């Protein structure tokens, strides 16, 4: 039976053979956010839909993010040319119902599990998130479904495995599972939301092209007076 609290996926996502989820604040979304998940999906092979999951409020960040509607609009604009991507607003809706609570990936992944979707469901993280996974709320319930992207020129797979071993919570079998879920050679995209926000806060740079920011997303930002 469908849980009315869970936002269902459209047919293109629900019926896809596999789904790759990518969470984040996307405040604002930049070209790395828009391109890297698709590059990882292509590297894994098979047929994957990519689902973006904007966070209500990250438990690891103290600042309040930009209003949810704006972040969803910016994501939608950035993804305008790709029919196999979708923005899942579950964490934003949950945040509105429970404004004093941060967004926990465990709750989102549990909701996805209750949908009874066919095929594979995986979620994408970077090496830094893999290194801190043991600090995530209820991480033992979902960590095995993670896919880790290693960008070109970054640390090696062996170095990452050594880092995870030194954390002290993963068994030898766990480490081998982590190793099997690493995608290497992901293109490096020089873009960051914090750098983009800094550029937008400078009146002399705000209206000029900003590295890593989609021009139509920037037009939306200027139109709505975001990141002054």
Overall description:
39% of the residues lie in helices and 15% in strands. With 228 residues, the chain is an alpha/beta fold. The protein has a single domain (11-184), classed as Rossmann fold (3-Layer(aba) Sandwich). Strands 3-2-1-4-5-6 form a 6-stranded parallel beta sheet, sandwiched between helices. Helix 3 packs antiparallel against helix 10 and helix 7 (157-167) packs antiparallel against helix 8 (172-180). The chain is globular and about 55 Å long. The model has no long low-confidence stretch (mean pLDDT 93).
What is the straight-line distance between the termini? 46 Å
The residue-averaged pLDDT reads 93
Rounded to an integer in angstroms, the radius of gyration calculated over CA atoms is 18 Å
H/E series: HEHEHEHHEHEHHEHH
What fraction, in percent, of the residue positions are helical? Answer: 25-40%
Indicate the CATH architecture: 3-Layer(aba) Sandwich
**DSSP helical segment count:** 10
Name given to the CATH homologous superfamily:
HUPs
Strand content: 15-25%
- Structure classification: alpha/beta
Number of strands: 6
Largest sheet: 6 strands, parallel
CATH class membership? Alpha Beta
The domain tally reads 1
Spatial arrangement of strands, main beta sheet? 3-2-1-4-5-6
- Low-confidence spans: pLDDT under 50, at least 5 residues? none
Task: Examine the coordinates and then state which fold CATH places here, giving the name of the CATH topology.
Answer: Rossmann fold
